[in-house]
Amino acid sequence: MNIIRKNSTEHLRFDTSKNIPLLTFDSLSKESCAMHGFTTRLGGVSRGFLKSLNFKEELGDTAENVAENFRRVSAAFDTTPDRIVLSQQTHTANVRVVKESDAGKGVTLPRDYSDVDGLVTDVPNLVLSIFSADCVPVLFLDPVRKCIGACHSGWRGTVSRISLNTIRAMHDNFGSAPSDIICAIGPSICIDCYEISTDVALQFKKEFPEHTPEILLDKHNGHFQLNLWSAVSITLKEAGVLPDHIHTTDICTCENPDLLFSHRASHGKRGVQGAFIKLL
């Protein structure tokens, strides 16, 4: 498959060694204490505009298809669906500490929580998951304290600094030093494809006053282009993550609609891909 890539010093690897293809970062893959991967739209059983590895029944899929897709991704992580834990994403900056008792919630068990866009845990063999179709998925690994995190950072979550909240949750609950945490900013919409209105741009100008030139491109027509990748990276650095521990996607969802689900590219007719991380 021809993948359109941005100018980047680091490439996401298209890994076909599992039963489904995954996009992975070498910087995380080399750590023996965890497994990670960003799914594509390839390798599942969903049909039509949801083809084929969709994880959300509410978008028009069948429960059987979604269950099989979760079975396939769990197999890629050498586990079963009852070890996956789902977020409950509503574009908040809320982060949940995941316990063993949360295993399977959202997949094989109902969730007893809501408004959760970030997850952290130090429990081995639980798979944390978040889902997106242009928003930024961010994965976190502390190989020193042996804990992991995942968050969904759309523009609302980004301006509310959910990545910072995830780092804080790892520090407060597991003793992580931000300088030890490795972060992966996954496939999502790039600045070239992400046009926003003035009111959204004003929120970023207010929240990131010293970094506006890095985050916003003024089109001088009442619209701006937004660089979510830069905004998330800036937030991570401000949280104390080392620059060389921040690894950013070179793949835009909107520019690769045959590989990845994109809300913008599909005008809303799409599924969701997942970002998954598991502590071994």
From TrEMBL:
Catalytic activity: adenosine + phosphate = alpha-D-ribose 1-phosphate + adenine; inosine + phosphate = alpha-D-ribose 1-phosphate + hypoxanthine; S-methyl-5'-thioadenosine + phosphate = 5-(methylsulfanyl)-alpha-D-ribose 1-phosphate + adenine; adenosine + H2O + H(+) = inosine + NH4(+)
Domain of life, source organism: Bacteria
Example of a GO MF term: S-methyl-5-thioadenosine phosphorylase activity
Pfam families to which the protein is assigned, alphabetical: Cu-oxidase_4 (PF02578)
Keywords (A to Z) from UniProt: Hydrolase, Metal-binding, Transferase, Zinc
Family: Belongs to the purine nucleoside phosphorylase YfiH/LACC1 family.
NCBIfam families named in the record: peptidoglycan editing factor PgeF
Function according to Swiss-Prot or TrEMBL: Purine nucleoside enzyme that catalyzes the phosphorolysis of adenosine and inosine nucleosides, yielding D-ribose 1-phosphate and the respective free bases, adenine and hypoxanthine. Also catalyzes the phosphorolysis of S-methyl-5'-thioadenosine into adenine and S-methyl-5-thio-alpha-D-ribose 1-phosphate. Also has adenosine deaminase activity.
Protein name: Purine nucleoside phosphorylase
Species of origin: Candidatus Weimeria bifida
